[in-house]
Amino acid sequence: MSQRVRVVWTPELLDYDFGPGHPMAPLRLDLTIRLARALGLLQHPDVEVVGAEPAADRVLELAHEPEYVAAVRRASSEGIGDPARGLGTEDDPVFPGMHEAAARVVTGSRDAALAVWRGEVAHAVNLTGGMHHAMPGAASGFCVYNDAAVAIRALLAEGAQRVAYVDIDAHHGDGVQAAFWDDPRVLTVSVHESGRTLFPGTGDPVDIGGAGAHGTAVNVALPSHTGDAGWLRAVDAVVPEVLREFRPQFLVSQHGCDAHVEDPIANLDLSLDAGRLASAWLHQLAHEVCDGRWLALGGGGYAVVDVVPRAWTHLLAEATHRPVDPATRVPRSWLDQVVALYGREAPGSMTDGAALRWRPWSAGFDPDEAVDRAVTATRRAVFPALGLDPAVE
Ligand SMILES: [Zn+2]
Ligand SMILES: [Zn+2]
Fold first, then answer.
1. Domains of the chain
2. Per annotation, catalytic residue among 64, 123, 132, 133
3. What's the Cα-to-Cα distance from 135 to each of 32, 52, 184, rounded to whole Å?
4. Stretch 340-369: mean pLDDT, rounded?
């Protein structure tokens, strides 16, 4: 197997920009790449940094209605919104070049998936991807085109028979789940803050996939303020078992880092360290269940200076087989760039210093704990459809 790892990046990807004041500031990506470079992660001979051209309509139409693609083009070139299709809304305002910018993200994920599938690279990372809320006919939640859904459809077209998608963004991965709701070839797993307290309001444990695909949608809906110990416990109680049972040939993961305690939008209260550990678990699982065929995507993350660059630098480090010791100091050269760009200091360490103490599910569960009730609801709802026992590990 190739040892090379693809990192999708070109500054043109910064054109995905809803404008000043919008939470999804492209500078979060710019700062991440600068930090990864300052740590030397992208300069290794095994790492290929590859850009992307905007995807053709026939590629976008793997996951989107032609009428929607046409509406995005109109919005993009003429500035005309289409609120019924989610375009020109508060979450997804129209901007010039919107179509090209969003279609470029799609190419990044699709080409990366195919490069992994064909064995040209071992893993791939597209931090600009993970647009998991985009629907077949509508933009939603800062997402215009669903790069993850297109990448998975491209893998299926190439002959893949079972693809798993695991989403650890704070929000439910509703667009990807919707794309494959009735498709037994694609397992979608989303660990998120409950729809009762957070956008998009979906992702209940009882949602387990459509007719003919029961058990291929897995939803873990956690209470707000779950924190590291509960979150790691929940991920560990569900994700490895369902992946081992489904036996995918390919893993796509979405690493939105808006579950961090400092994120202004969500409330799961995680540390940087918990996200880093989960990335390592997913990497390990990819090697265990699908010969390492792994595409890691970005996603949400709105603490643009204090969280996103460090969180996704850890993901890049993990995927390129050069994990960064959490005790590492953030390079002064990067901190100086942040001061120059933002006029303020960024955190100086690659850790939040979290202890990461958590209890495995096999040690028993406590029905008085909200997290344990959430995990139990998921296991009861979906494990039998996968042929797994909800009660025991
Ligand atoms: Zn690996
Ligand atoms: Zn999110």
1. 5-386 (3.40.800.20)
2. 133
3. 27, 22, 19
4. 93
